[in-house]
Write a structure and sequence with these properties.
Helix content: 40-55%
Strand order of the largest sheet: 1-4-5-6-7-8-9-10
Number of strands: 10
CATH topology: TIM Barrel
CATH class: Alpha Beta
CATH architecture: Alpha-Beta Barrel
Structural class: alpha/beta
Distance between the termini: 18 Å
Bound molecules: zinc ion
Shape: globular
């Protein structure tokens, strides 16, 4: 079965803590049968977005068939953030955007005007926007889902599908908001059938957070999907088909 991992981080360190290297990252993908990973920054959530975005693009240039970078900007900066986003999304190597409101320390409502411009920019480029969700005070699942009403043409992804405390409302929001998607990355294994029962299998994507931890977490989270008891057609959509569509891989192959 083909696998796209929609939620990973590729960065050699988190402050002083070493993380899987580029080689270890690719080895982990091979070991677990992952064909393509969407990579996000970590240190870029603390500043220097431009430098970190350039680094993500370098990884993609080195592994063009395996790695798709998602850009990050800091909405608290206002116009320069929108300009940096436009710069990244004008480069065809970037196919999505990632925010980590919690680490970046902004509630969407604090930066509402800029967020609307950012979401419009993403919609123009038809690039999905992934948000960390599931942790107060800046990133509850409700705060993220509320943005689907601000710019209905933007495709917004709950990066953790409610994570732990918000999985139940995440299922309801997924059902009710047409432009909301879920990356199944973090909730308990048994939560996946619930999300699919609530909203169907067309809006759920597999993600692992690999890179933030070693390959064993990737293997475990993959197992949660494969052994979920869902039918093969649903599993195929979650592991590959839905991501292929959001990333335009048929129209624009890697
Ligand atoms: Zn993550």
């Amino acid at each position: 079965m083909r696998i796209i991992d929609f939620h990973t981080h590729l960065q050699d360190r988190w402050f002083l803590r070493p993380l899987p290297s580029e080689t270890q990252f690719l080895d982990g993908m091979d070991r677990c049968g992952v064909e393509v990973s969407c990579i996000y920054t970590i240190m870029g959530f603390y500043g220097n977005c431009e430098r970190e975005n350039n680094q993500l693009a370098n990884y993609a240039r080195a592994h063009p068939k395996r790695i798709i970078p998602f850009a990050t900007v800091d909405p608290k900066l206002g116009k320069p953030a929108v300009e940096e986003l436009e710069r990244c999304l004008s480069n065809p190597v970037f196919r999505g955007v990632k925010f980590h409101n919690w680490l970046q320390a902004f509630a969407p409502s604090m930066a509402r005007e800029t967020m609307i411009e950012i979401l419009r920019c993403c919609a123009r480029h038809d690039a999905p926007v992934v948000f960390h969700d599931g942790t107060p005070p800046y990133a509850t699942t409700f705060q993220i889902a509320a943005m689907t009403r601000w710019v209905p043409e933007a495709k917004i992804v709950l990066g953790h599908g409610g994570l732990a405390d918000y999985v139940y409302p995440a299922g309801q929001l997924l059902r009710d908001m047409p432009n909301l998607y879920i990356c199944f990355c973090g909730p308990k294994a048994g939560d996946l059938p619930y999300l699919v029962e609530m909203a169907g299998a067309d809006k759920v994507l597999f993600g692992s957070d690999f890179g933030f931890s070693d390959w064993k977490m990737l293997a475990g989270r993959l197992d949660d999907v494969i052994e979920s008891g869902l039918d093969n057609a649903s599993i195929e959509k979650i592991l590959h088909g839905n991501a292929e569509q959001l990333l335009h891989l048929k129209e624009r192959p890697l």
